[in-house]
Specification:
Layout: H1 6-11, E1 14-24, E2 33-38, E3 45-50, H2 58-61, E4 65-69, E5 75-77, E6 80-82, E7 85-86, E8 88-90, E9 96-98
Antiparallel strand pairs: 1-2, 1-4, 2-3, 4-7, 5-6, 8-9
């Protein structure tokens, strides 16, 4: 594992947001869901393509808090421009489980 310095870590903007819209992404090469995530007034709503279909459906995602990197440059993924990277962990079967706060926190809060 490569070590990083504290200054490297502080450059990554990991923020909490709430999924306000989720829909299937049939054009994606791998099964995915398009998420619209509200990060509060400072950052606003951003889109993301998330390969999380093994554990989640669009209907179960709306209203949920997620943690995402909001300072990567936008990335074209098929017909959409992904504006943030929603984070998660692979379980024993390789499915992605979302990284989420266990309490309500204000939208846009940076990971401490």
């Amino acid at each position: 594992m490569q070590e990083i310095g504290w200054s490297d870590f502080t450059k990554v903007e990991l923020r909490v947001g709430r999924v306000v819209e989720a829909r299937p992404f049939p054009e994606a090469r791998k099964p995915a869901i398009i998420l619209h995530v509200d990060f509060g007034p400072e950052i606003g709503v951003r889109k993301s393509s998330a390969q999380i279909t093994a554990l989640y459906t669009p209907e179960t995602l709306v209203g949920r808090l997620v943690v995402a990197v909001v300072n990567f440059p936008p990335k074209q993924i098929g017909p959409i421009m992904s504006e943030c990277l929603v984070t998660g962990f692979h379980d024993a079967e390789g499915r992605v489980a979302l990284c989420v706060p266990d309490r309500d926190v204000p939208l846009g809060t940076k990971l401490a």
